[in-house]
Amino acid sequence: MIKKGRLIEVENMDFCQDKRTIKVFLRGVSLKDCEFGEQTEIITSTGHIVRGVVSERKYFYDSSKVFGKNVKEILCIK
After folding, report:
1. CA–CA separation, 55 vs 27, rounded Å?
2. What's the number of CA atoms in the CB half-sphere (13 Å) around residue 33?
3. Can you tell me the distance from the alpha carbon of 21 to that of 14, in angstroms, rounded to the nearest whole number?
């Protein structure tokens, strides 16, 4: 289980005008408890609230797995 307030990545599908689909991966802080593959909402560093499926491709909720990836404290630096 991923707890509320953890940094995660969600997957969202966008559709282009020429009938192609694009997968968009967005990172942000989870607004509720969730699991992999479950649809949830995040708030990005710019303040946007986005809904998407929790991605198993890259996950940031466990501090032992953040080697070389985004760290929550670094996102606060502007």
Report:
1. 10
2. 2
3. 6
- Please tell me the CATH code under which domain 7-60 is placed: 2.30.30
For residue 50, what are its two tokens?
A: 């986005």
Q: What are phi and psi of 9, to 5 degrees?
A: -120, 135
Domain parsing of the chain, residue ranges: 7-60
- Are the C-beta atoms of 9 and 58 separated by less than 8 Å? yes
Give the separation between CA 6 and CA 42, rounded to whole angstroms.
10
At CA 37, angle to CA 59 and CA 60, rounded to 5? 10
Q: How far apart are CA 19 and CA 17, in angstroms?
A: 5
Is residue 22 scored above 60 in pLDDT? yes
Residue 59 has pLDDT above 90, yes or no: no
Whole-angstrom Cα distance, residue 4 to residue 1?
A: 10
The structure's pTM equals: 0.69
